[in-house]
Amino acid sequence: LVEMDGDEMTRILWKMIKDELIIPFVDLKTEYYDLGLVHRDETGDQVTIDSANATKKYGVAVKCATITPNAKRMTEYNLHQMWKSPNGTIRSMLDGTVFRTPITIPSISPAVKFWKKPITIARHAYGDVYKSVDIRVEEPGVAKLVFEGESGKMEEQIVHTFKDPGVLQGMHNTDASIRSFAHACFKYALDLKQSIWFATKDTIAKKYDGRFREIFEEVFAEYKDAFEAAGIEYFYTLIDDAVARVMRSEGGFIWACKNYDGDVMSDMVSTAFGSLAMMTSVLVSPDGKYEYEAAHGTVTRHYYKHLQGEETSTNPIATIFAWSGAFRKRGEMDNIPELVNYADQLEAACFDTLNAGIVTKDLANLMEGVTPQVKNSADFIAAIRERLEKRLA
Ligand code: NAP
Ligand code: MG
What we know:
The protein is an alpha/beta fold. The chain has helices spanning 8-22, 37-42, 46-58, 71-76, 86-94, 175-192, 208-230, 239-248, 259-273, 300-307, 317-334, 337-355, 361-364, 377-392, and strands at residues 2-5, 31-34, 60-63, 97-102, 119-123, 133-137, 141-148, 154-162, 166-170, 196-200, 234-238, 253-257, 279-284, 290-294, 358-359, 373-374. The chain is 46% helix and 20% strand. NADP nicotinamide-adenine-dinucleotide phosphate (NAP) is lined by residues 65-68, 87, 276-277, 293, 296-301, 314-315, 362.
């Protein structure tokens, strides 16, 4: 396993999880990369690149949350440079797609009453409005969309003839990026044995969104038989129809979204399921490399309390599930059923604990029908260990 350590409160949890829940039970072999901000700065961020290359080599990684530096962090850590987001670097090196899945328990019911099973969101993280250029039009004039081919081929269309001031935007995507996204989606659907939904607005953007639909159909042809064998389906519809159907669905599927839709819908879906602290995140590359992590950040506010000697009740569940996800994948790839079983039991021990009403502070107010017992992180992890030992005995 490629192990990517991180920052602040999640770095503290990382060690507790390894010491209490992993090392006593697993003959752990990891290639360790310290992506903590101090070490990223010392290595000129080379460690991030090395860890991404290691993920390409070994195929499975588990990552702790890391600080993305801003101006405040420059002084706090006395940095040489405002290093780029490690997640961004790793994602672009692996050409990966991020899948976010909520971890659900019976005592926390989703805001949407029909949802019985988790909904995983896959966001296409390239292009569209995020790599667009725009112009503020100040006077009457003509706006054109122009393409100059290297061959000399020219294509030109009038976007709008302005009579008054307005705004103008140009955006793009590439076949290669859309194709990678489609492969990652179909691969992950087979992994989870869940159907995949994809939606665009190809009735309006006939060429632009139409291309997304075409490429998805083309790529799906390669997966069709495997989907049939797994008893899952690929479902395409219009984005507004998808939104309506998602609301009325029971969940239990993957929803692939274009970049903007994914940005907006992932915040809606994650909030509706309860808590960011209960959301996992997996980066999947088109050639089947996997990097598992929690969806939340380094929980800075809790870390500052920790530094002042206060106990914190920070939720380690998403980070534990990052490890269990990575172990399960490693076990499947290398055919080690004992490791897959350990991953299953570790998750089950987390559910045993939560279902007994033993929780961290963030969940206490969300629970219904049980009287929660709030624990600090160390005691919460100890409660999971107790149940894991019973299960593995
Ligand atoms: P955050 O670390 O996700 O925390 C925001 C707030 O959400 C926390 O203050 C806490 O609320 C709650 N929370 C999040 N995770 C929790 C957990 N496991 N248990 C309990 N409560 C939890 O986001 P942030 O404070 O905006 O960002 C902090 C740092 O993380 C930044 O430097 C950012 O760059 C980085 N970041 C990294 C990643 C990544 O590596 N994947 C992702 C996002 C952000 P209360 O304070 O109300 O308890
Ligand atoms: Mg967003």
